[in-house]
Amino acid sequence: MDYAPMKSSLQFPIALLALLGQALACVAHPLDSWYSRFTNSPTAFYSATYGGGSFVAVGGAGAIAVSTNGSQWMVTNPTAQVLNGVAYGTGKFVAVGYGGTVLTSSNAVNWEDHSPGTNIYLQKIVWGNSRFVAVGYTISPSFNWSLVSTDGVTWSNYYIASNKPTGGLAFGSGLFVYPLTIGTNLLSIDGISWWSQPTGLTNSLYMIGSSGTTLVAFDIRNQTFTSGDGTNWTFRGVNSLLRPEGLAYGNGFWVAVSRGMHANYSANLIHWTAVTNAQTVALGTCFGNGSFLTVSGSICQSAPLIVLQAMPGLPGTITLSGPAGVTYQIQTLDAFGQADWQTVSNLTVTSTPWLWTDPDAAGHPQKFYRVLLP
User: Fold this and answer.
1) Between the CA of residue 38 and those of 74, 78, 110, 254, 339, what are the distances in Å?
2) Largest alpha-carbon pair distance within the chain?
3) Helix H or strand E segment including 33
4) Reported pTM
5) What is the pLDDT of residues 215-254, one digit of tens each?
6) pLDDT, tens digit (0-9, with 9 covering 90-100), for 284-304
7) Nearest to 343 by CA among 310, 373, 322, 370
8) Domains plus CATH for the chain?
9) Which of 168, 268, 259 is nearest to 211 (CA)?
C-alpha cells in the first residue's frame, strides 16, 4: 500500500479532516474564528506570552492578567509601573516596564520584585540562549541599554546604543536582534556584546519578530522580510498590516497584530488574511497550547489550531498538533462521500505534537481521518 504524504485541511469547531492520498477542501479556517475573552479591563495590555500551562498578559498600571485556558482571566496589579513586556523561560515568567521594573513569577500568580535599581524604561524582553534579555532606554542621557539575567533575579545592564531607537527586539537562530538604524541591526549571542550588522534594507523597520528559527521584519513601507541568520534578508511581499505591533507563530501559521486594523494570519508571510473580530486590533500577541491570543484593551483568543500530518514511510501513522490536555475522537472513512465514520480511538494527549498509529491501516489502500473535539 502506498501512502502519500498527508495534506491536512482544517475545520472548526466540528471536526478536522485529513486524507491520505489527496487533499480535501476545507470548509472554514480555524483562524477565521476569534472569541472575545476579556473585555472589561480598565487598562490596555501591551504584551503576552505562554509558558508552564498559563497565558500571561501585562500592561498599564502594573496590570498582569493570567489564564490557564485563555477563557477565564484573573488580574492583579503587583506594581504601579507600566509593564511593557513579558517572557517565559527556565520555569519563570519575567515582566518588565518603566522605572527599571522587573517582576518574576514561577506560577504567574505570585510576583516578586527583582528590579535592579536602574531608571531604564524597559520596553521588550525575550528568552534565548539560556538567558533573559531586556532592552530599554534612558532619557538623560539618551542611551539604549540591555539588561541580562540567567535566572530572572540577578541582572546586569550594558550600554548598546544612543538616541533611543524603536526598542524592537527578537530572538531567532541563536541570535538576539535589535533594529538600530536604516540598514543596520545590532546582533548578539549573549545580550552583552553586540555588533553592527548591515542588512541591505533601505527603510526603517517598524517591527521585528521570530518563530525561533526564522526572523521576520516589517518595514515602514509595509514590506515583509525574512532571515535565517540575522544578516541576509529576503523580501517576501507587501503587507497591509498598518503599524504592526506584534507577531506570533504556532502550528505552521503566523499571526500579526496592529493598532490600525484587525489581526491578520498567514501561512507563508506573503498572503495575509484579516480576521473579522474588531477587538483583535491589538498591541501584542502570542501562541500557546494550540491557540493564539491578541491583547490590548480586550483579550481575544482564536479557535484551536489543529493539524494532522502523515509520517512518510510509516503507513497509518500521523502526528496531531493541537491543544494538550483534551480528548480527541479519531474517526476514519474508507471512501470520501460515505456518511458512516468509524470511531477508532478516543485519544487523550498530554503534549503535542502527538504520534498515533492506526492499527488497521495496512488493510486499506487509502483512508480519510477526522478528529472531533469535545
Assistant:
1) 10, 19, 21, 22, 39
2) 74
3) none
4) 0.88
5) 999 999 999 999 999 999 999 999 888 889 999 999 999 9
6) 999 999 999 999 999 999 999
7) 370
8) 7-29+306-372 (no CATH), 34-302 (2.130.10.10)
9) 268
- At 240, phi and psi to the nearest 5? -125, 40
The neighbouring-strand residues paired with 45 are 59
| Distance in angstroms (rounded) separating the CA atoms of residues 191 and 58 | 23
CA 189/CA 312 separation, integer angstroms: 36
Distance between CA atoms of residues 50 and 89, nearest Å: 10
Cell numbers linked to 59? 500592561
C-alpha grid cell, residue 140: 538623560
CA atoms in the 13 A half-sphere facing the CB of 127: 17
If you write DSSP's letter for every residue of 137-182 in order, what string do you get? Answer: EETTTTEEEEEEESSSSS-EEEEEEES------EEETTEEEEEEET
Question: How far apart are the C-alpha atoms of 18 and 16, rounded to whole Å?
Answer: 7
Q: What nine digits make up the cell of 25?
A: 477542501
